[in-house]
């Protein structure tokens, strides 16, 4: 036991202790070092002789290292592994150096028939492979990815335990959408939302509406020297009385996400405004939003690396070429900060069309001086953030004859609760489901009359990690196409993330989806929570619901 314990304490080549690796049968914990001299010529009895030669004459090893650094000797990949190029010239210089050190034709390796050329090749590969950087240089690699950067000397080379070391990966995403809601009279931006998907959906439109209603809080800035101008901000933050203020008309273009049933329902039934879609292919009918994006492009997007400018002749298209000495990229977090500051400063900038006033000053004039009549979102809606609700029609499934308890099937998987499992009378009945598109691990169930039944949670491995409705659909599509395999009890979301990471380096769309998934898990609560459902339910409406956990 003492001997095995001492073996475990021996240092390993990776810099750590051998540990339990030393208990593997026939596992060597020390490199072989020859002590006996080479007595005669021949091909047997020479184990460790060349390493012994290098130990006795460090000048020979220094010669090999010098030749590798000068690229007089290179490594190539062959069918049998690494192959040494330029070995013959190195062997001549090696032999000459041996003679200079006082070795004769009777000494090893000159006494051998091939004078140690094969052992020299093994030594070259061994010395070059001591580090990845050295081996890559010896192989004349043009690109070396991974590993520790040369300027990160303080980081450990290995991660022995969780949270010992972490790594950050950067990928190029495909597209960024900016959705905004602008007040026409004052030109003020009421709210905005950034979307990373190739196309924005109705859920993104509803999120933008929510951002325009909920009081704005300025995000913390991490970019040095990035300032808010004096008086900059959003209307709901600079004028607190505009928090949860709603509008009378909502004008938009004919995008399918704007014309979706959920979008129109929220606008007409919850916000209580009229929805007006303008004529197709007529951007001049919405001049204020076009003017805003033109201003935002000139002060922000056209000044960023990678911009395509305003046209083919715009010299700003060459920004990436002119800054080739540095990384011409903008991180997503930095882009969000820049956008927030640019919009906040836009609201505080003077406009010629407003007589030199800023949008915030114009709003303050109408709200505080002229005291115009305002409408606000109902108090129950403000507390429950009802704009996150999305209605879906479903049925309660199950079978009394086959002993299958009642459950709800929703987008590829089953949902159940203790309360629902005991309601045999609900089997086959239609129900209304309300869910949060940002985390669909829980649903709130109502009957067709609007009475709340219970909250159901997703079953199987889907409950482990928060995921959006778009992620669920994407995972199911990949499984049907046999591009993603999920074993029993494996977390589908984690398998999906691994699939995206594999393609993020070569495909922008995969990088965008990976970032969306990461943000969904970051913003979600540890336990799934269901949306509040439709407002207006009274205690009497819940009297028929049997007691029990949901």
From TrEMBL:
UniProt xrefs under SUPFAM superfamilies: mu transposase, C-terminal domain, Ribonuclease H-like
What is an example of a GO molecular function annotated in this UniProt entry? Answer: nucleic acid binding
Q: InterPro entries, from UniProt?
A: RNaseH-like_sf, RNaseH_sf, Transposase-like_Mu_C, Transposase_Mu_C
- Residue ranges of the Transposase-like Mu C-terminal domain? 408-454
For the region Disordered, what residue ranges are annotated? 511-550
- Name the chain's protein: Integrase
In which organism is this protein found?
Pseudoduganella rivuli
């Amino acid at each position: 036991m003492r001997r095995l314990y001492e073996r475990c304490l021996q240092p390993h080549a990776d810099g750590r202790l051998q540990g339990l690796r030393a208990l593997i049968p026939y596992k060597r914990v020390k490199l072989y070092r020859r002590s006996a001299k080479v007595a005669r010529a021949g091909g047997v009895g020479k184990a460790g002789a060349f390493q012994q030669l290098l130990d006795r004459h460090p000048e020979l090893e220094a010669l090999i290292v010098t030749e590798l650094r000068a690229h007089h000797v290179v490594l190539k990949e062959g069918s049998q592994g690494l192959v040494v190029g330029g070995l013959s010239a190195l062997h001549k210089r090696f032999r000459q150096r041996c003679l200079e050190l006082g070795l004769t034709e009777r000494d090893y390796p000159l006494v051998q028939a091939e004078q140690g050329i094969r052992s020299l090749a093994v030594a070259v590969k061994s010395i070059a492979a001591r580090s990845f950087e050295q081996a890559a240089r010896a192989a004349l690699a043009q690109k070396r990815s991974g590993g520790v950067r040369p300027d990160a000397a303080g980081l450990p080379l290995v991660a022995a335990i969780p949270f010992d070391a972490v790594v950050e990966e950067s990928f190029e995403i495909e597209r960024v959408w900016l959705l905004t809601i602008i007040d026409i009279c004052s030109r003020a931006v009421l709210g905005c939302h950034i979307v990373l998907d190739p196309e924005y959906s109705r859920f993104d439109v509803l999120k933008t509406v929510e951002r325009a209603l909920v009081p704005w809080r300025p995000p913390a800035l991490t970019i040095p020297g990035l300032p808010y101008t004096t008086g900059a901000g959003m209307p709901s933050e600079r004028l607190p009385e505009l928090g949860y203020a709603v509008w009378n008309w909502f004008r938009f273009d004919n995008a399918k996400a704007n014309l979706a049933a959920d979008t129109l329902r929220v606008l007409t039934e919850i916000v209580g405004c009229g929805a007006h879609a303008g004529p197709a292919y007529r951007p001049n009918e919405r001049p204020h939003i076009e003017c805003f994006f033109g201003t935002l492009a000139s002060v922000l997007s056209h000044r960023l690396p990678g911009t395509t400018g305003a046209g083919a002749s715009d010299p700003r298209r060459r920004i990436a070429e002119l800054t080739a000495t540095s990384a011409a990229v903008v991180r997503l977090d930095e882009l969000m900060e820049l956008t927030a500051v640019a919009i906040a400063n836009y609201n505080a900038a003077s406009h010629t069309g407003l007589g030199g006033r800023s949008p915030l000053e114009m709003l303050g004039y109408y709200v505080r001086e002229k005291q115009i009549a305002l409408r606000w979102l109902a108090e129950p809606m403000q507390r429950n953030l009802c704009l996150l609700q999305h209605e879906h029609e479903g049925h309660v499934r199950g079978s009394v004859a086959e002993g299958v308890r009642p459950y709800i099937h929703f987008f590829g998987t089953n949902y159940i609760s203790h309360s629902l499992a005991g309601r045999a009378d609900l089997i086959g009945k239609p129900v209304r489901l309300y869910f949060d598109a940002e985390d669909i691990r829980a649903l709130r169930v109502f009957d067709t009359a609007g009475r709340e039944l219970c909250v159901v949670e997703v079953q199987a491995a889907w409950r482990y990690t928060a995921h959006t409705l778009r992620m669920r659909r994407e995972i199911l599509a990949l499984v049907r196409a046999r591009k993603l395999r999920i074993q029993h009890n494996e977390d589908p979301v984690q398998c999906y993330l691994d699939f995206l990471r594999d393609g993020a380096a070569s495909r922008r769309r995969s990088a965008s989806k990976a970032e969306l998934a990461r943000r969904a898990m970051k913003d979600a609560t540890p336990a799934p929570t269901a949306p509040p459902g439709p407002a207006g339910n009274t205690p009497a409406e819940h009297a028929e619901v049997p007691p029990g956990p949901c």
